[in-house]
Design brief:
The complex is a heterodimer of chains A (273) and B (268). Chain A is built from 13 helices and no strands. Chain A is mostly helical and 273 residues long. Chain A has one domain: ABC transporter involved in vitamin B12 uptake, BtuC (Orthogonal Bundle), CATH 1.10.3470.10. In chain A, helix 3 packs antiparallel against helix 4. Chain B is an alpha/beta fold and 268 residues long. Helix content of chain B is 32%, strand content 24%. In chain B, helix 6 links the parallel strand 7 and strand 8. The longest helix of chain B is centred in the middle third of the chain and has 16 residues. The N and C termini of chain B lie far apart (47 Å). The C terminus of chain B is likely disordered. The chains are: A mainly alpha (273), B alpha/beta (268). Chains A and B meet through helix 7, helix 8 and helix 11 of A and helix 2 and helix 3 of B. Chain B: Pfam families: ABC_tran. Chain B: This is ABC transporter domain-containing protein. Chain B: Keywords: ATP-binding, Nucleotide-binding, Transport. Chain B: GO terms for molecular function: ATP binding; ATP hydrolysis activity.
Chain lengths: 273, 268
């Protein structure tokens, strides 16, 4: 398959958008936005270390992500330390470690491409990884969707029903971490959170149930990716930044629409006799 | 007589330290409702948690249904964030999840969910967002969720709290119907009249078991006073057990408990 670099980038943002949208629903329903944010920063040292060692960068980021999910689950289980504490520590420690590694590196590493992505330089392997993960995300939602939603909505009820909440929790964190790694080439580590969280958060504002979110969120994320990419071409902007900003703009539009729908029609004077 | 669904002898329940509740021996038969009565902090919730395997227990005999979905529960109030994007039907369908595992719901499952919604009188709200329902409707929705699991044992935690008369009568009717279907029920309540109305036997506790027998025999003034340390009042011929909590929400009908101050106030 020979595609020019722009067609490859279009394919990658479409796949990454669908993936980010599907996994973003999980992030929003389980209120894991801050975890995702810290994960995007904390995979950074893994990517830097991989670049220094000359191995696959997604592999390095994935190793860091697995370690971080284990730490998050571990710290989260300590009663007095909530998941937000674990995420906050991960965020700063990970980013600091990445910066430190980079300063130690003998070679000049293009750190910017990890942080904000380089979608015009995606490889066939990047696309294959995103496509595979998209398939995994679809299968997970299809088979375990009811468990993911039940445990997100009512963890106590899920436990009382004789089910174990740590299983959907671990599944969700693993899927989020894998997604952060897979979309790194598109929007980078720092901007990844925008493509994951904003479309799902926007979808939540405009639809009433999670099944509809699973349709609307990927569509918004794909639209963000494609529009951002086109804008970057026409206006000669950085693609990662443009994509993240379009996703944020979609959230803004959804918020305005939700606010308008909530506001009663007519003024108070015309409504009260 | 039908077989016991729950059989407990010489049991104590707790969370690792000193037991919260000890000396417990009781059973619940299929088609029977047992009231679990005691003041706040008596160990009622710990007992329910123990039956679910969520609190520790030590016992000579400990038999409860153990297959997935065999125990249904109704919490005191909904723990689902009203903003969570689920419909009533999706919440009720959660009741099928333990039995389904990773399988997709079939036609039979969908019918069971629809029947459970129908049974609590919410058929016209099935597509409504769960958080848009009133508190009483949400509580009925959670009861439907418990019913959708087709439980052999149903644990109802203060199910009559905060219900208006209509919802209360509907719930009593549902309890009677479930008994007719052979479901075993364990119901915590502060309302002794409701216990008398639907519960065949009563388990009275306060840190330890005080009595377990036919409801009429257990709920004598002396025993209830022993359990509640004299926090018992009588209004219009109804005996009520009072506690420090659970007040404000229930002043709209005189059956449910009041706190001492509210009870002392003149009737409106």
């Amino acid at each position: 398959m020979t595609l020019d670099f722009f067609a490859r980038a279009l394919l990658e943002v479409t796949l990454a958008g669908a993936l980010a949208g599907l996994v973003g629903v999980l992030v929003v329903l389980r209120e894991r936005a801050f975890f995702t944010m810290s994960l995007t920063h904390a995979t950074f040292p893994g990517a830097v270390a991989a670049a220094m060692l000359g191995v696959s960068i997604p592999l390095g980021a994935a190793v860091a992500a697995v370690a971080l999910v284990a730490i998050a689950v571990g710290i989260g289980r300590i009663r007095s330390q909530g998941p937000a504490v674990a995420s906050g520590i991960m965020l700063t420690a990970g980013f600091a470690l990445g910066a430190l590694l980079q300063s130690l590196g003998p070679l000049a590493i293009d750190v910017e491409s990890f942080l904000i992505g380089q979608v015009l330089a995606v490889s066939g392997a990047d696309i294959a990884l995103t496509a595979t993960l998209l398939a995994v995300a679809i299968v997970v939602w299809a088979l375990a969707g009811p468990h993911l939603v039940f445990s997100s909505a009512d963890e106590g009820g899920y436990r009382r029903a004789g089910l174990r909440p740590w299983i959907p929790e671990t599944l969700a964190l693993a899927l989020i971490a894998a997604t952060v790694v897979a979309i790194m080439p598109v929007v980078g580590a720092i901007l990844g959170v925008a493509l994951i969280v904003a479309p799902a958060a926007a979808a939540r504002l405009v639809v009433r149930d999670w099944r509809a979110m699973l349709v609307v969120a990927p569509l918004i994320a794909i639209a963000s990716g494609v529009l951002g990419l086109l804008a970057s071409r026409w206006l000669e902007l950085a693609a990662g930044g443009a994509i993240a900003l379009v996703a944020a703009a979609f959230y803004g539009l959804a918020w305005i629409r939700a606010e308008a729908a909530r506001r009663p029609r007519g003024t108070i004077e015309t409504r009260t006799p | 007589m039908s077989a016991p669904v729950v059989e407990i002898a010489d049991a104590s329940f707790g969370y690792g330290g000193a037991p919260v509740l000890s000396g417990v021996s009781f059973e619940v038969r299929a088609g029977e409702a047992v009231a679990l009565i005691g003041p706040n902090g008596a160990g009622k919730s710990t007992l329910l948690a123990g039956l679910l395997g969520l609190a520790q227990h030590e016992a000579r005999v400990f038999r409860v249904p153990s297959a997935r979905g065999e125990i249904g529960t109704l919490p005191q109030s909904s723990e689902i964030d009203p903003a969570f994007p689920v419909t009533l039907e999706q919440v009720v369908a959660m009741g099928r999840t333990p039995r389904l595992g990773l399988k997709w719901p079939g036609r039979a499952d969908k019918r069971i969910v629809a029947d459970a919604i129908e049974a609590v009188g919410l058929a016209e709200h099935r597509g409504a967002r769960f958080g848009d329902l009133s508190g009483g409707q949400r509580q009925r929705g959670l009861l439907a969720r418990a019913l959708a699991g087709e439980p052999r044992l149903l644990l109802l935690d203060e199910p009559f709290n905060g219900l208006d008369h209509g919802s209360r009568d509907a719930l009593l009717e549902t309890v009677r119907r479930l008994k007719g279907q052979g479901v075993a029920l364990l119901i915590t309540t502060h309302d002794l009249d409701l216990a008398r109305a639907v519960c065949d036997r009563t388990l009275l506790v306060n840190g330890r078991q005080i009595a377990f027998d036919e409801t009429g025999c257990v709920l004598t003034l002396e025993r209830v006073e022993a359990a509640f340390a004299s926090h018992v009042i009588e209004i219009d011929g109804h005996t009520l057990a009072t506690t420090e909590h659970h007040e404000a929400a229930h002043h709209h009908h005189h059956h449910v408990l009041r706190d001492d101050d509210a009870a002392a106030a003149p009737p409106r």
